[in-house]
Known about the structure:
This protein is mainly α. Helix content is 62%, strand content 0%. The chain contains 6 helices and no strands. It is globular. Mean pLDDT is 86; it is low at 83-92.
Amino acid sequence: xxxLPLTPAELERGQRLGALLRRARGERSMLEIALDARxxxxxLRKIESGRVATPAFPTIAAIxxxxxxxxxxxxxxxxxxxxxVEPAASARERLVS
Length: 97
């Protein structure tokens, strides 16, 4: 099966996803989060760095659960239009308030 190249929008979403997960992870180690989510640390590293721009849904669901992020908040953060302005609060901050 031939995989089509990712679009610029998909690559941008992957970058946003990685940034969101890094922010939500905070000071916790990548190893701790990966093990709790039952994914390999290498997978988490690739997602956070944007090297895997379209990770599998169950992978993101598991990581989001460990980080205390709702999937709605993750989607809202990564699919927002790129207007060059950072949101006033991260998805994690919106969940806490």
